[in-house]
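Q: How would the structure tokens look for this protein?
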Amino acid sequence: MRSPTAKFILDREISNLGLDQEYVCESRGIQGSGSIPSPKFSSFNQYKEEFKLAKPVMDRYRIDISHHTAKPIDHETIYQADLILAMDDRVLLGPEGGLLLQFPEAKTKTRLLSELVDKKHDIQDPAEITNENKYEQVLKLINLSIQEGLPTLLKLTTLYHETRNEINQETHRKHPEH
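A: Here is the predicted structure in token form.
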């Protein structure tokens, strides 16, 4: 629920700025990647109890993730990404298959979402949430991190993109056959 919610809000904000042709946001999870089992369901609305609690909150924020299908992170996504945002340290650093354990090459372009607003805190996993107020807190944290952190996100994304282009140009200059 966290990643597709953040994607939905980011897409909306980027579109409001007229930048939707320049930025692409993807939602991927660590479930189903590496040795981590796939999620029980591929869509949040299939988790009946959790969806029932979250739906009124999502409606208040005008968020619709009903068409989202869970997809695991993979090497191609890591390679293509200019910036990777994780929701908590377990996803980022978890010893059972966190992002940086599976994809150490992503270290320089991976951050917690909350770091966009100069904070470092986890955004709680909805699997641990049992009431509507907690969903409200999670959505507020995601929304606030994106609303206030969007300028930082755009700067970081541009910086990583430019750096990657420079590296690719230098590699091509040194090895034109590639």
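Residues 116 and 151 are 9 Å apart (CA to CA).

Residues 132-174 form the longest helix (43 residues).

Upvote if useful.
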